[in-house]
Amino acid sequence: MLLERIYDEDLAQASYLIGCQAKGEAIVVDGRRDIAVYQDLAAKNGMKIVAVTETHIHADYLSGTRELAAATGAKIYVSGEGGPDWQYGFDGERLHDGDTITLGNITIKAVHTPGHTPEHLSFLVTDGAFSDKPGYLLSGDFVFSGDLGRPDLLDEAAGGIDTRFEGAKQLFASLRDKFLTLPDYVQVHPGHGAGSACGKALGAIPSSTVGYERLYAWWGPYLATNDEQGFINELLDGQPDAHAYFARMKRENREGPAVMGERAPLQELDTDAVAKGLAEDTLTFIDTRSSGEIHQGTVARSLNVPAGKSVASYGAWVVNPETDKNPLVLLARDLDQAQDMWDHLVRVGIDNVAGYLTSIKGLPTFTPKLIQPGELEGFEAAVVLDVRNKTEHKAGHVPGSYQLSGGRVMWHLDELPAGGTIVSYCQSGVRNSVAASALRRAGYDVVELDGSYAAWNAWRNSVPAA
Known about the structure:
By secondary structure, this protein is of the alpha/beta class. 29% of the residues lie in helices and 23% in strands. The protein folds into three domains: 2-255, Ribonuclease Z/Hydroxyacylglutathione hydrolase-like (Metallo-beta-lactamase, Chain A, 4-Layer Sandwich); 271-366, Oxidized Rhodanese, domain 1 (3-Layer(aba) Sandwich); 369-462, Oxidized Rhodanese, domain 1.
């Protein structure tokens, strides 16, 4: 048996390819939309992808299940659990608790593990060439290394009202009745790692075992003493802010993400044509440089989405493809970097990319306004905006600041003053540069706190006591 983990550092998301080497068949679980990685892996191992499935209706990325099926002819399997409100809107065989998928010697058994979402499935994998007992559990967003999938995302991202309490109860029952009945040796392969917003304390270890989690996960003592209320209280306390784009992901994944098909390579664009498109507001420029470079001068009304491991995350903060219809122009050093950034963007449904430029020379530019920490006191700001998470704000913040995390700002403009100057900050300046660029494009007067909270805190501690 082949079991390969494909990990996306951007969204801290894990997908899996499981293959029977004897029969040359493979299944992909929780795949993403840029599918070449799975096709290449299958080809490398002499396998054909014959099935695709997913553990649940995801909120943090757009599923590649339909994309892979269209490209390979693989059969789609999705959950049929969760009741009528949580049924998928596209064709595929519905799996219920106890149903199996067979690939040669391998048996994959669906286990209904609600809590994170009502329809959530985990998959028990048995390698029949070695044993008639399962040895692996693909746990999706049910059990992570050291943590559990949060049960409040339906409230935060899908318009639910107080569903978190029922979800937490379901998680408790799923742990007690499903997870903890498995042998300690069963390996646990979760759907996310550290950095994901799908839990509050995910470990960086890529896999675990039932026995290890039973002994050392934070929730173990609550299950051991059957303390359901204590478990619920601890589970719901301190969950991170949910990004606003999660609502779009949840809706599109349920209905069925659009199938892109094979994408032609991006083209390097003509600078004059881009300048004309920007002037006519028929293109949107994505400046992918660092915040420090942005502060030296950037393209007027551009959005800052720094190149690197968080292109999808930051892109979804500032581009809403349901309302932002302009094609995007990416700043990239070359075609390879532009293609890589596009791959990240399609993972969150940002598909409409016109091409790329390698320089901002010849485009209209401006220099963002900054304020130094020592100048903040007495500055007449309409609001001092903290775009960090609420847990960071609680741990320490600029006095009088208003917290609204960067992933929620553009969906909650009604919480900001209609006029005046906004002074914004994050921890070091990266997230702030992203959020501030979107606010400026939306017409707000924004001044960024130079160095953000880290610089302000250092300045505060350096000022002699009165």
